[in-house]
Design brief:
The structure holds 2 protein chains of 2 kinds. By secondary structure, chain A is mainly α. Chain A has helices spanning 7-31, 47-54, 56-89, 96-108, 111-125, 131-155, 159-167, 172-200, 204-209, 217-226, 231-271. Chain B has helices at 4-10, 61-69, 111-121, 126-139, 155-167, 185-202, 213-219, 237-242, 247-252, and strands at residues 23-32, 35-45, 50-54, 76-81, 84-85, 96-99, 173-177, 205-210, 222-227, 230-235, 257-266, 271-275, 280-283, 294-299, 305-307, 316-327, 331-338, 343-349, 364-369, 374-377. Classes of the chains: A mainly alpha, B alpha+beta. The A-B interface holds A 158, 160-161, 163-171, 174, 179, 182-183, 262, 265-266, 268-270, 272 and B 69-71, 90-93, 96-98, 100-102, 104, 106-108, 117-118, 121-122, 149, 151-154, 157, 165-166, 169.
Amino acid sequence: MNSTWSRFNITSIVLGFAFLYLPIVLLIVFSFNESKLVTVWGGFSTKWYVSLFHNQGLMDATWVTARVGVISATVATVLGTLAAITLTRYTRFRGRVLFSGMVFAPLVMPEVITGLSLLLLFVAVGLDRGFFTVTLAHITFTMCFVAVVVQSRLVSFDRSLEEAAMDLGAPPVKTFFQITLPVILPAIISGWMLAFTLSLDDLVIASFSSGPGATTLPMKIYSQVRLGVTPEINAACTILIAVVAIGVIIASIANKRREIQRQLDEQAAQRG
Amino acid sequence: MKSLGSIRRDFAPWNDPNAKPYIQFDKVTKKFGDFTAVNNLSLTIFEREFFALLGASGCGKSTLLRMLAGFEEPTAGRILLDGQDLRGIPPYKRPVNMMFQSYALFPHMTVEKNIAFGLKQEGMPGPDVEKRVAEMLKLVKLEQFAKRKPHQLSGGQRQRVALARSVAKRPKVLLLDEPLGALDKKLREETQFELMDLQQELGLTFVVVTHDQEEAMTMADRIAIMDKGEVMQVATPAEIYEAPTSRFVAHFVGNVNMFEGKVAEHTANATRITGATGAQIVVDNGGNAAAGSDIVFAIRPEKIKVSSKKPADAVNALEGEVYDVAYLGDMTVFHIRLDDGQIVRASALNASRVTEDPLTWNDRAWVSFRPDAGVVLTR
């Protein structure tokens, strides 16, 4: 491979990364702005971070988002995992193709449509919109993502592991909890993380299905921005970015370590 | 004290009409949709027998094993174990254990935990489990690997963990699905003998599925040759090799020369065969083929003698030309094209370093064999 730094290479990398990260960098920089004006630099300050924690509206919204995220991701993970198991294991029931198509359709469904249809449903059955309906809506749209992640793991799952457990005397339920679940757990955890992240930054579906007292952080930010961007919002977003970035970094380091450890183990095993 | 070898030699319950069968397949059929994997098959296996199911892939041997383990139910017929009908009994309640081809070691458990898994399922108390696990680790010589995870072991070690795990519960029958398939050739040969010793030591009944005829011949007391869901022949390795009952079996195990022909006549103690291309062959056991019926005479290459001159005392001698010679070190394989066009394969042991009568390409040669060297096959 040719690895020289030609002018063309450097230009494309700089442009590409600028395209991706300039807006975010700008946002982070201005969150430390002394001035109240968003686009005018008035010196370094962390005062917006302090005032952020005194902004009851934003703090409430953060709390709602966190709860919705945890609850909906957890329920979606259980349902999505069950759907994935059914779809990979019971391959001979009638209408399987239709069923699997229907589980994955929400992946490509425009959010506006998902949101609107959920709204119509909640109105039709007379559910008061609020915390419960947002959570329900998030379960609905994140479940299929979990199903996809878990299903891709299950496809490569060696069924003889389960047969071996049963052969050794473990009934099916015990086999599932002692063998299947621990083996596919990493996929289930990534499914949960994905569902949580999706729930965290969802605006459209939350706007449709939420009601008074259940404003999520994205909704709050969006409504405040419409009244004018404050540096406080920048600070809130910077914290959000930091949380996500730290999560991603920890996950990839852990992954890398595991990989290296496995390679070392395998080399050791080869040597005897 | 008798050596293990002599126990094996005396062990022949299949010849004893009063011996009680241990595992019985009774007219078992298994269909997957339109495909018939096992077709109306009956088979009897005796206690403490080392039994091999040998066949090409797709012949139904694995299905047979899986039905015994309880992963598949027969479409028709019965499977009896020690007199008990196994129908409807789930795998986790059957007194049989299986060693899987992929080993199926639980990746999230240590070697110790893998071996202890089955024992814990039957509610064995903790100290007893520990004792049995230690015993099993010693048996397969993996004591120092107890705390390792499966991915930290080499292929041969994994195989031994799988073996220890499957015998830990002291099952009535141990099923082995291609137990040595994933090992390299040298390790496989060593392990074959280890498996045989283990079977004798534990006194278990082994049913092993394999596609490797050498493996089956080495280890098994009896072999069932399978093809298209049916058993072609069940016999000891020596019988399978020396007295195959069909062309399929003769072809499947080892090398063989086949002469198509007709029974010309039966005399008091011999049968004369006229080959389709004119060769005259005399055998001392023509079986029950009627005079004039179509048969095949099958003879193994090592039972054919090759010489440059016609042997004076030979009952059967056919003339031809050396077509190919392959020197393999321990033996030499000749391909002789007979004057009637048929090619005969003959192998000669290189008992001395110098051959006095070396044959080479295009030499005239005679092939000769004794009247009892081959078998007459009617199917």
